[in-house]
C-alpha cells in the first residue's frame, strides 16, 4: 500500500488559487529517495506555513456595485470627459471584463439575481418592488427560502457587511441583518437623497421615500447634516467596516451597494468643479461618478493601511446601464437603462487581486452577475446548500486562463412592457433582441452597437436561439408583485403571463 505525504495547506485553498497540491510517494519502491524528498517537502511545508500566517488563506471579498452607471462612463472603458483614476488603476492592475452582463435592466431584479444567483423571473421578481410600500405588496421581498450568497459566506466564517441600497424588501424577514449581513448601513428602498435634511421613519410610512433617514442595523441615523454627501457617508462606513475587519481573524465580505450615480442627480460643488468643460446633467453626473471613484479610493487606502490589500479580491460593476436623459453614456453600446439592447444590461466590470489576478488583462467572453455566487463561494471554500438552485457557474479558472467559460451557452434578460415583452439573449458572439414585437439578430464581434440586423441572412440561427430562450422562459413563475397598477392589470387580463406573441418569429419592420 502506498502512503502519501502532502504539504499542510488545505487542498480547497490551493485549488481556489489554482495551485495543485503536492503529493509525494513513500512506497518501498521509492525508499531510496524517500528520505531526501521528505526533507524537501518538510522544508516547503515550513515555508508555506510561514507565508500562510502572513495572510489569510481565503481572500477578503470587496464587491462594489454602482447604480445606473453607463458602460462608457469609466476611463477603463474609454471615457475621456469623466475621470475615474482609482477605478482605472484597479482595472489596469487586474482583469477587465468587456462583455459582463447583469440579468435585468432595472435595479431591483438585477440586485436580487446578484445575491440569489438565480434569474429573478424564476421566483416571481421580474419587476422592481413598488414605490407604494404601504400598499398591497408591502409584505413582499426576496423569499427567506432563497439562500443568499451573504448567508453562504457568513456560514463559512466570513465577517459580512453591506453599505447602501438594499431594494430587496422592507419587512423584518427581508432585512439585511436577517439575510446574512452582520453589519448594515443604508436604506431599504430604491434610493435616498444625496443631501439632507432627512425625516424620521415615523414621519413617513413609505420606505421608498428618498427623504427618510438611513439606518444602521435597524436604528435611524439622525446625526447627518445637510452638508453630508451620501456617497461619502457610505464610503466612510465601508472604511469603518474594513478597519474593524482588520482586528478580526475572520476574512470579510463587504458589499458596497452604492446608489450613485442614480437619480435624483446631486453632486458636491468641488466635484463638479473638476468638470468645468461639461454642462447641465452631464456635469452633475460626472461629479457624482467622481465622488464614487474618490470613495473607492478611500476603501483601497483603508485596505492598504490595515494590511489587507494584498489578500482582497475587489470586484466592480454596475447594476444596469445608465440613463442618457440623466447624463449617462453607454457608448459604444445601443440603448440604456430599461433596454434589452446591450446598453441596458452590459456593464463595466473588473476583478482585482494582487499576485493572483495578473495585471493588464482583458476578458472578452460573456459572463453574468449570476456567476458571482458560485465563484465567490468557491474562493471562500464555502458550502452551497445541496438544494440550492443556481443559474450561474464558477468562472474562476476559465477567467484566469482566458478561456470562454460559457462557450455555446445562452444568457438572457427579459423585461415586461405594458403590452409586450422585450428580450435580449446572447450566445458567444451572437445576440438576439425582441423589441417592439420584432426579433433582430446581431453579431456583436462585428457590430457592438447593434446596428446591422442579420435576421434575414441567418434565419435558422435566429430560430434556434429564439427557441432556446423560449425554453428557458418555461421556468418563469407568476410575478409576486408589480411596480405599477397597469402592469398588474396587464397580467390579470392574461396578456403577459406566457409572453403572448413574444416568441413568434416576426422580423419585418
Instruction: Count structural domains.
Output: 3
- Helical percentage: 25-40%
Oligomer: single chain
Query: Distance between termini?
Result: 73 Å
Using the 3D structure, state the CATH architecture of the largest domain: 3-Layer(aba) Sandwich
Average residue pLDDT? 86
CATH fold title of the largest domain: Alkaline Phosphatase, subunit A
Rg over CA atoms, rounded to whole Å, is 24 Å
Strand content: 15-25%
What global shape is seen?
Answer: globular
CATH superfamily descriptor of the largest domain: Alkaline Phosphatase, subunit A
Number of strands: 17
What is the tally of helical segments? Answer: 13
Category from helices, strands and their pairing: alpha/beta
Low-confidence stretches: 1-56
In CATH's first tier, which class of the largest domain applies? Alpha Beta
Largest sheet features? 11 strands, mixed
The string of secondary-structure elements, in order, is EHEHEHEHHEEEEHEHHEHEEEHHEEEEHH
Amino acid at each position: 500500500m502506498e502512503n502519501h505525504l502532502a504539504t499542510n495547506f488545505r487542498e480547497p485553498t490551493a485549488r481556489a488559487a489554482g495551485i495543485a497540491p503536492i503529493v509525494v510517494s513513500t512506497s518501498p519502491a521509492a525508499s531510496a529517495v524517500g528520505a531526501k524528498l521528505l526533507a524537501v517537502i518538510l522544508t516547503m511545508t515550513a515555508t508555506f506555513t510561514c507565508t500562510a500566517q502572513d495572510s489569510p488563506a481565503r481572500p477578503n471579498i470587496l464587491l462594489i456595485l454602482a447604480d445606473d452607471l453607463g458602460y462608457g462612463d469609466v476611463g477603463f472603458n474609454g471615457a475621456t470627459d469623466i475621470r475615474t483614476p482609482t477605478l482605472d488603476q484597479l482595472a489596469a492592475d487586474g482583469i477587465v471584463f468587456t462583455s459582463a452582463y447583469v440579468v435585468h435592466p432595472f435595479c431591483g431584479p438585477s440586485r436580487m439575481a446578484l445575491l440569489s444567483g438565480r434569474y429573478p423571473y424564476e421566483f416571481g421578481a421580474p419587476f422592481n418592488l413598488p414605490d407604494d410600500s404601504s400598499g398591497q405588496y408591502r409584505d413582499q421581498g426576496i423569499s427567506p427560502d432563497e439562500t443568499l450568497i451573504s448567508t453562504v459566506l457568513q456560514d463559512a466564517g466570513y465577517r459580512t457587511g453591506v453599505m447602501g441600497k438594499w431594494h430587496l424588501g422592507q419587512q423584518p424577514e427581508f432585512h439585511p441583518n436577517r439575510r446574512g449581513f452582520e453589519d448594515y448601513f443604508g436604506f431599504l428602498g430604491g434610493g435616498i437623497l444625496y443631501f439632507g435634511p432627512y425625516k424620521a421613519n415615523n414621519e413617513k410610512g413609505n420606505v421608498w421615500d428618498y427623504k427618510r433617514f438611513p439606518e444602521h442595523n435597524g436604528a435611524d441615523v439622525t446625526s447627518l447634516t445637510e452638508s453630508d454627501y451620501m456617497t461619502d457617508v457610505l464610503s466612510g462606513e465601508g472604511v469603518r467596516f474594513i478597519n474593524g475587519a482588520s482586528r478580526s481573524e475572520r476574512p470579510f465580505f463587504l458589499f458596497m451597494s452604492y446608489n450613485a450615480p442614480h437619480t435624483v442627480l446631486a453632486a458636491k460643488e468641488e466635484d463638479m468643479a473638476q468638470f468645468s468643460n461639461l454642462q447641465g446633467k452631464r456635469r452633475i453626473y460626472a461629479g457624482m461618478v467622481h465622488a464614487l471613484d474618490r470613495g473607492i479610493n478611500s476603501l483601497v487606502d483603508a485596505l492598504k493601511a490595515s494590511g489587507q490589500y494584498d489578500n482582497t479580491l475587489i470586484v466592480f460593476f454596475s447594476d444596469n446601464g445608465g440613463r442618457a436623459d440623466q447624463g449617462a453614456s453607454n457608448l459604444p453600446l445601443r440603448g440604456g437603462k430599461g433596454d434589452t439592447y446591450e446598453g441596458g444590461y452590459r456593464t463595466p466590470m473588473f476583478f482585482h487581486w494582487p499576485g493572483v489576478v495578473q495585471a493588464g488583462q482583458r476578458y472578452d467572453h460573456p459572463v453574468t452577475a449570476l456567476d458571482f455566487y458560485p465563484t465567490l463561494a468557491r474562493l471562500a471554500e464555502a458550502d452551497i446548500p445541496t438544494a440550492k438552485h443556481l443559474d450561474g457557474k464558477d468562472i474562476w479558472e476559465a477567467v484566469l486562463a482566458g478561456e470562454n467559460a460559457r462557450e455555446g451557452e445562452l444568457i438572457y434578460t427579459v423585461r415586461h412592457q405594458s403590452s409586450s415583452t422585450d428580450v435580449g439573449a446572447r450566445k458567444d458572439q451572437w445576440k438576439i433582441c425582441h423589441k417592439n414585437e420584432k426579433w433582430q439578430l446581431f453579431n456583436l464581434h462585428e457590430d457592438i452597437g447593434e446596428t446591422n440586423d442579420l435576421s434575414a441572412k441567418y434565419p435558422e440561427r435566429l430560430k434556434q436561439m429564439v427557441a432556446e430562450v423560449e425554453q428557458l422562459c418555461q421556468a418563469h413563475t407568476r410575478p409576486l408583485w408589480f411596480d405599477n397598477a397597469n402592469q398588474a392589470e396587464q397580467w390579470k387580463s392574461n396578456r403577459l403571463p406566457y409572453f403572448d406573441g413574444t416568441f413568434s418569429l416576426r422580423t419585418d419592420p
